[in-house]
Structure formats: structure tokens, C-alpha cells
Design a protein that fits this description.
Layout lengths: L9 E4 L9 E7 L6 E2 L4 E6 L4 E5 L4 E6 L6 E3 L3 E6 L21 H9 L9 E4 L4 E4 L6 H9 L18 H13 L58 H16 L2 E9 L1 H18 L5 H15 L5 E3 L4 E3 L5 E3 L1 E3 L2 E3 L2 E2 L7 H16 L13 E4 L19 E5 L3 E7 L2 E15 L5 H16 L9
Length: 462
Amino acid sequence: MTSTRAQTGTHVQLPKLGESVTEGTIGAWLKQVGDRVEKYDPLVEITTDKVNAEVPSPLAGVLISITAQEGETLPVGAELCLIDESGGEMQAIAAEQYEPAATQTATETAAATSAPPSERDHSARPIGPNGEMELLRTRSSPAVRRIAEEHGIDIRQIQGSGIGGRVTKSDIMQFVDAMHTAVPAAAPAVAPPPTATAQPPVQQPVAAPPPTIPYVEQPAPISHMQAEVYVGDTVVPLTPMRRQIAEHMVRSEHTAPHVTTWMEVDMTRVVQARTQVKERFAREEGFDLTYLAFVVKAVVHALHEHPYVNAVWDETRIIRRKAINIGIAVGLEEGLIVPVIRNADEKSIAGIARAVRDLTAKARENRLSLDDVQGGTFTVNNPGTFGTILSTPLIVQPQSAILSTEAIVKRPVVIDDSIAIRSMMNLSLSLDHRVLDGLTGARFLNEVKRWLERFDPETSLY
């Protein structure tokens, strides 16, 4: 039951949590209805495919209503809660729009059953031989209810899969798909009633019956198909992070026409440089110097030479970014996250190494902020750490390209008609063919290759 008292205050909305993030899943509420909230106090945890973040309060006041429920996935701009900043003494208002069924009184139940159908509370319906009332507190977001109204669906027909039986957007869309898939059976022909007289009936022209539409069971859409579970299988529920990574990857593959090109790079000079300084670097900095820092520096150089690659597709235009912010893919047990090295072109090799170390540590300790994952203009992936020699990375939308570094492997190569043992590495570049052509991608990748192969081992890291 909703409160009758007028709720005045400021509506807090779900903020944009990243350049390519369009929605977030509500985690735990850190404040409860009736709590005093100061400006910038954390209100609620939000999970996206990029980061788990806390949404701060934009103002001071009293939290008087919670609109977004835990476990609900909402688009950017959706209402989260209502805060009253008047400073007056306020009592808590129920966070749910409906009270639990157990709190309904017998009087309310009787009123619901005795009222005309048009006036009855649609949250209740009679069941069973004794006419007991089953109170259906159908919970859903405004977006879900809007979809139901657009398709003429009674939302009470849908079994919600969300927390507390909440009807989610996925539930309503599956119901809509099933409704559109079903084909109504043709109505059976009705025989005319027997005549009351012995006279032969007068023949009347009879219209030809409509053609019978054969019923063909339609397969469920691929996105909604469920695999059969066999004995011994383990079913792992999707976490919000895993689900959103999946949605982002599918969207990237379907949105951008991917083209991948590969080049092999002679990393011998970089290997020599790292070997010379790695012990001293570890003593002074407190962590190991990795090859990734050298590759990122080479990418920054190539982006300066080929600014077309440092761009995004925006449907009616292409935007070339001035800032060079390099995303670094970090693999976690539950998924992949891409924190961003801001203004990477202003950092030395040692500075890039520090940034990689700090962001990786924060990602693995779940300490990344929203600022850490926003604003990337190009991404570098590093699966070679695990021994890969070739990959086809998917672009982080809306960027135009992503580079993967593979394992450095010693192998014989021909140099000036002689065979030599060199430290070789493959580079993989996937690009958005709407923004970049193969020629531009090849030139960019070749510039990365040239910088790495010509690296002077005496070059300062600082």
C-alpha cells in the first residue's frame, strides 16, 4: 500500500557510469528510508560490466523513498530514490510501493472481494474452493510496466524472476516474444442447428470457409533458449558483472564490423633493455617492470602519428579524441575489467608501469572508482601473459580499435641471409571498419612494430 502523504523532494537518478555504459544493476542500499544523508554520502552500490561503484548523494537531506530495488537493472537516468532537503523532522516512508501480503487486514481483503471488478484492488484475486484471497504484490519498475502497457499485457500473468518475485525487463521481453510467437488456432466450424420442420431446408449460399492456418511450433529466439541440464552438471547463476560483460560483447560484435590484422615483432632489443634494468627497477620501485609498459609507450607514439585510430564512431560523425587515455584489460576471476591510464602520452615508461601496477591492484581488490574506468580512447589487451600466440580481441565500444600483445617466444628467424635466435611477439589489432580501413590499421600497427624493434636499450625509463 502506498503512503498517502505527499512526497516532496529531489529525485536522485542513476548517473552515467562510463562512456559505453547504458545501465546498471542495483546492489546493496547503504542508506535506509528515514536516514539522514549528507552530501556525497554513499547511497547505493551499482554494478556494471566495468566497475562496482557507490553512487553518492547529490545533496543533504532525509531519504524518504527508495524506488530502485536491489537486483533490479535500470537504464542511465532512471530514478533511484527521493531525498527531502527541507531539514524538517520526517518519519520513514516505506521503501516498497506495497506492503507485504501478511500485513493486509481482513477488512481490506473483504473490501477487495466485495467491490465491483472495476474498483477491485488488482493486487488480489480469489483462489481455491473456499474463496481464499491470494495477494499478488506484482512488483516491477516503471519501464517494465510501460512495456506491458504498450503490448496490452496484464503484468499479473508473468512470473517474476527478480528479488521477491519482481518482474524484470527480461521477464516481460520473454513474455512478449512468446506472445508474438504463438499462432492462434483456427476456430472450429459450428454446425447449423437442426430444423424444426420436416420440410427440406432451403439451400442458402455458404461462403467458403477460411483456409486453415497450420500451427507450426516456432523455436525460441536464440537469446532465450535454455540448454538442457544433465545429471552431474553444475549450474552457475550469472552475476550482474558476467551478464553485462556478455551483453556488451554481443553489442560490440553486432554493432561494429570487426577486422583483425596481425604482425610479428622482433622484441629482442626491448628484452635486452628490460634485462639490464629490471633488478634495479624492482629495488627502487618495489614491483617488477613488465613488457606491457613498453608496448603502451609504443601505442602512444603510434596514436600521435595516426590520430585517426584514436577516435570513436557516433552514428552521424566520427570524433577524434585529443586525449590519449589507454584502457588496460585486467582479467579477474569473475570477468574482465578495463581501467584507464589517463593522459598516457604524458607519462614515461616508468610512469606507465606504475599506472598499470596501481590500476591492476585496485581492480583485483575491487577498489576502482568511476573515474578509473571512464574516458578510454584505445585499449591494450595482454593475453600473452598466459602464453597465447594469436587472438582476435573485441573492441571496447565506442572506441575504434583494440590491440592484443601475445607471448614473447624465442625462435629462429632469417636476418640478412643468416639464421638468428630472436625474441618474437605477435601483435593483433582489431578495428572498427566503419571508422578505419585496413590500410590505416596496417600503418598504425607497423608504427608500433617499428618503435619496439628500434628501441635503444640505453633509453632512460624516466
